[in-house]
Every structure is written in structure tokens, then in C-alpha cells.
Write a structure and sequence with these properties.
The protein is α+β, with helices and mostly antiparallel strands. It has four helices and eight strands; from the N terminus they run E-H-E-E-H-E-E-H-E-E-H-E. It has an eight-stranded antiparallel β-barrel.
Length: 210
């Protein structure tokens, strides 16, 4: 399984119209393949939409996208509102759950870490061993590493029923020593981070993940 994450920066005050047009186009596009999730930013970089698509592999992605474009159902007519576009292919860690349509949020915290080149095996080992303790406090939506696009990236996404619940959960996990994963405590080699980014997302009405 691969996940394509497409991040679009929009012109200010264009989000309602973008979501309207995207949702209308998606009604036809989903007959080719379905979204995993569609979010817009609530806290962090504003005027941003993030849509995630799952595919069996790159071959399926190319075939599906080509068919949708050829048949004239894709892309949605939102180009006039988009100021920047970014596409990245992510692979799931073993602790990353399957993502069928579900109500998990409605608030999603997306944390993107850029790790030092060559440190992915160390990071993956720490997180795959440490995440089970964190899951005692709240569920995980995704734990992915980048394969194409921006390299050396690790994305983890956590759903919460409210922002207060997010704060309380993180405080409890930290106080219990379950968060963040500690390489030394887990008896594993450490890894280095060179950048971190955090944003709060909320789903659109047509997003399979709510």
C-alpha cells in the first residue's frame, strides 16, 4: 500500500469554493478510486488543503489517474485558486493502521519530522517499538515515511474529539513516560531530527475520514 499526499496552498478566502468544486468533481472521480482523507488546515499554515489517496502501488496510481484524466472527470476546476502544489508518496510503518472510512476526529494533528539522512531505520525501530505504549492513551491515524517527493520525512497523524482532549492526552502520555518514544529507554540507537512541523486539520464534508 502507498499513500499519495497532495498539499495545495490556496488564495485567501477561497477555501469554501475550492471544497465545493472538489467535492462535486470527486463524485465522479471516486468511481476510479476513493480518497483516504481530505482535510483543510485549522491551525498552522492557513489556506491549505491536504488530500490523501491510497493505491496498491505506483502502477495502479498511474493507471487510475490516467483514466480519470482521459475521461475528463479529473482534475477538479480549482486551478484559479491554487498558488502552490506538492505531491509526496508515503509508505506505512508496520504500526500504521488501515484507514477505511470512519469517524476518528474531527480534529487531526499532523506532525511532520525531517530526520537526518540515513536515519530512517533507526527512527522506524524506535517508533514501531514505542507506539504501542502511546496507543494506550489514544488511537493512531497514520505513521508514514516518504518514498518520493520531499525525502527524509516522517509523518504521524493523531485524531482527537477536541483540542482539549488532544492536550489532555498528550499530557497524560508524557507524564506516564510513554511519549515521545525514547530510544535509550527502549534500548535502541538514537536518531537525529533536523526539522519538525505541526498542524491541526479538520475534514471536509466528503472526506471518508471524519
Amino acid at each position: 500500500m502507498i499513500y499519495e499526499m497532495r498539499t495545495y496552498d490556496l488564495k485567501p478566502r477561497s477555501l469554501p469554493e475550492v471544497e465545493k468544486r472538489f467535492g462535486e468533481a470527486y463524485e465522479k472521480r471516486k468511481t476510479y478510486s476513493e480518497l483516504t482523507a481530505f482535510w483543510h488546515t485549522e491551525i498552522g499554515p492557513l489556506n491549505q488543503i491536504i488530500h490523501v489517496w491510497h493505491y496498491k502501488d505506483l502502477e495502479e496510481r498511474g493507471r487510475v489517474r490516467a483514466a480519470a484524466v482521459k475521461d475528463g472527470v479529473w482534475p477538479p476546476a480549482i486551478g484559479e485558486f491554487v498558488v502552490n502544489m506538492r505531491s509526496e508518496i508515503f509508505m506505512p510503518f508496520s504500526v500504521s493502521p488501515a484507514l477505511p472510512p470512519a469517524k476518528m476526529g474531527p480534529y487531526y494533528e499532523m506532525r511532520t519530522y525531517t530526520h537526518a539522512a540515513g536515519d530512517l531505520p533507526k527512527l522506524r525501530a524506535v517508533w514501531e517499538k514505542g507506539v504501542p505504549e502511546r496507543l494506550k492513551f489514544s488511537p493512531l491515524c497514520a505513521a508514514w515515511y516518504s518514498e518520493l517527493g520531499g525525502l527524509n520525512k516522517f509523518v504521524h497523524i493523531w485524531p482527537y474529539p477536541s483540542l482539549d482532549a488532544r492536550n489532555a492526552t498528550r499530557d497524560k502520555a508524557s507524564a506516564a513516560g510513554a511519549w515521545p518514544p525514547n530510544a535509550a529507554k527502549l534500548g535502541l540507537p538514537g536518531y537525529s531530527l533536523v526539522a519538525q512541523e505541526n498542524k491541526i486539520l479538520v475534514p471536509s464534508a466528503f472526506s471518508p475520514l471524519q
